[in-house]
Protein 1
Amino acid sequence: MRELNISRRIGPTMIHLFFWCFTIISLVPFILIFMVSISSEDSILQKGFSLFPNEISFEAYKFLFNDFSEIARAYGVTIIATLIGTVVSLLITALFAYPLSRPSLPFRRTLSFYIFFTMLFGGGLAPWYITYVNMLGIKNTIFSMIIPNLLLSAFNVLLMRSFFSTTIPETVIESATIDGASEITIFFKIVVPLSLPIMATIGLFNTLAYWNDWYNCMLFIDKPDLYNIQYLMTKTLTNIQYLLMKSNSSAQVGELLAKMPRESVRMALAIVGVAPLLFAYPFFQKYYISGITSGAVKG
């Protein structure tokens, strides 16, 4: 009996140990980027990247925040696109997924298959680009970073549909219908309050997609004033002179290049770009786990 109790304790302990090790290993890249960002440029050039910097220096952050206007503008564009895009995309996804979860919807299986089909095949980049540029005219506007991602993600729709089907009792909806509630009232007064876990989960997915989106900015934006933070970071990581060319005259660029901590600036900019999400994620964690597990019970 004693041996059986010991074996039962060893199992959960080993699982917890495995996930702790996995978590630590997952954090190593972030820790390395931060450590490099606070390392002196000389130590990086001499000994390379290290988790334990030989000489701590905040010159990279001083360089970035010396003229913060470009980064602040990119942050503003990203925040606006993320807030508007996340809310509107979440609303569209919920309004599409809820009818698909209702057994009374005609051709429900056909529509669900159509949504699933879009996960497997796309229309191609050229038609996609021409549609947005020539028909919608979103080039060089902030809508080019909002509208393309508004088109429904099939995975999000199916995940939310599964949650509605398995979590919200049909008897509750039938009772509300008998009491005279309209479909809009049922959706906003009953379905949405009961679906906060999946709403937070899909909202987190949308937030990550909008915040990390640099591809649409690269395709549709030619004006530097409309660059978002991720595309600004991408340009800077590939061409560290970009920030200098934007914030200084050509006569000063050569002098500043000689003094600039290049490698640490790249890592510091990566930290600046990802830090808001790292701080926001713990607040969504509870709803995120609940939404994933509840929505994955049935297909």
Protein 2
Amino acid sequence: MKCKFCNKEAEVTIRYPRMHLCENHFKEYCENRVKNVIDKHRLIEKDEKLLVAVSGGKDSLVLAYILNKLGYEFEGLHIDLGIEDYSEMCKKSSKKIFSEIGLPLHIVKIKKLLGRGIGEVKTRRPVCSYCGLTKRYIMNKFAYDNGFTAVATGHNLDDESAFVFSNILHWNIDYLSKQGPLLEAEDKFVKKIKPLYELRDKEISLYASFAKIEHVTKKCKYARGATSIKYKKFLDILEKDNPGIKLNFIRGFLRNRKIFKKKDFELRECEICRMPSQGKRCAFCRFWRLKEPLMFQ
């Protein structure tokens, strides 16, 4: 097969929209997909002070690489989870890509900040649950404290379609009302954006391979058995028989998202960290039993 746009041999076949592409035109296709999502949903405004959260995995590192290639200015944030050798590998990959693109990378070490790493807390709560809580809080507070106006994450089409599917199954209306490539800033919550919203997991893997982006392929040991993985596998089966169903599902959701009305919560300031909270203390300060707010060096 020949590439759709040139006479070179095609190295990639995209089933939806169906086309055969050489390496260069495949990378261009992915970059254009990201740019289109940014422009369509107005994710990045002029003079935006952008923070890109990178884990060391393929998604966030490809995001940083593409945003840099598209000419956007930003800084990076890596959260060292303190999970033995796994976190060291993630930190190494994150530092390498930011060294190559010549942009600043901030590293926050949970173990140094909170005294314990992820997986070292004695609790009945699933590790993935409080890990997610911790990462979301630190990303937002670091961004807010340092004057960033937006935080970009590497969530892709597979992540988002599984998340929406899960929340429709459980009718989590409030989550559905806020789901999408853009979550506007509110109070001390900094704007969140997802530029990889329409790129598939396999496309990102191929892009990382072609662009020679070194990333961690080892899965976190605490992710085993996560329900999101089960939903992704189910949607993969549907996608195999119906190419494009994930993209059409997520686009259809965005067109009709207005039917899910956001619940009105009265927010107050957490008495510990002064960040938004529904109670006297926010969920983060309650879980980590903080007596004073986090201070980032």
Protein 3
Amino acid sequence: MTTPAPASRSAADRHGYHHGDLRRALLNAAVEAIEESGATAVSLRDLARRAGVSHAAPAHHFGDKAGLLTAVAVEGFELFADALDATWERTGDFAEVGVAYVRFGLDHRGHFEVMFQPALCRTDAADLTAARARAADSLRRGAALLAARTDGGDRQIATLAAWSLVHGFTALQVSGTLPLPADADPESVARQVTRFLGR
């Protein structure tokens, strides 16, 4: 008697939906869909199909597409702040925080795409405002270090320079348009770039 092949996991299992964890499953499915097709292509109907739930489930949890993408952005900024804060605590080094920024973008492409496109989200949502502010505070810590090294200690310019550098590098890398050699390690290059600014 042959043993039947194990059944493949359902979409709901794959996204972690187990008795009450539907919101988590829908967010996971949304991030997956964004990474595959981009945020503008995401639909609540497709999201329900991916998660293996009723068509009404996403609307029940998020209201509409803007509500869904706002939740993705909130989660993204929280994860982002966690990554930056952990790097500050471990290293106290602006260059390493810049590398953490790049690493986050590469590891969380779905979140990253939504976080910096305010037209996709409810920008006045309290949880999004709070999460964004927390991430900004972590970035300002690096700007303060840079400002201390510049003539006049202009913190605003230091903030703009630091953020523009690491965000631009990350966005180019995520989009695949950064002209790096095929065998180059993005994190290693990011470290060199941020240390150059830190001079």
